[in-house]
Write a structure and sequence with these properties.
18% of the residues lie in helices and 37% in strands. The longest helix is centred in the N-terminal third of the chain and has 11 residues, at 16-26. It has helices at residues 16-26, 43-46, 122-130; strands at residues 4-9, 31-36, 50-55, 58-70, 76-81, 85-91, 98-102. It has one domain. The chain is built from 3 helices and 7 strands; from the N terminus they run βαβαβββββα. With 134 residues, it is an alpha+beta fold. Strands 1, 2, 3, 4, 5, 6 and 7 form a 7-stranded mixed β-sheet that branches.
Length: 134
């Protein structure tokens, strides 16, 4: 895992499935572009890192950061790989904009497909974690 990542609230996505639908709808040429007001000061360090999505106070998915651009209105465009990667749910407070996340603090990826090799779906794992069962 790279040394620096971002976290961002998946505003309007109450579930991981809703986030997946949003990403599919916005994907173009294998990329998703999101706009944020400010460009991260450490943008060069973030390329190759990931943007971890927060939904219901949990990190649950991540997308690899491909690069940054400037929008016509001066805002920052974050270019992300269209593929969402499920991670072990980790509790995070909601916040505005984005926040840095050190690679050492990032949750590990869930190995394999949700139904393969005995793994449970990320939404179920998040629910179990919210109940304190895992």
């Amino acid at each position: 895992m790279p040394n620096l990542n971002l976290t961002k609230v998946a505003f309007g996505c109450r579930t991981i499935e809703a986030l997946e639908k949003r990403v599919v709808a916005r994907a173009r040429d294998g990329q998703v572009r999101i706009v944020t007001r400010m460009r991260p000061k450490r943008a060069d360090e973030l390329i190759g890192g990931s943007l971890f999505w927060i939904s219901k106070h949990r990190l649950g998915m991540r997308q690899r950061i491909l690069g940054f651009a400037e929008a016509e209105d001066g805002h920052c465009v974050i270019r992300l790989e269209a593929r969402l990667i499920p991670v072990h749910p980790a509790t995070r407070r909601a916040h505005q904009g984005w926040r840095y996340l050190a690679g050492s603090d990032a949750p590990p990826d869930l190995a394999g497909a949700p139904d393969a090799e005995g793994h449970i779906p990320p939404s179920l794992e998040a629910e179990l974690a919210s109940l304190g069962l895992i």
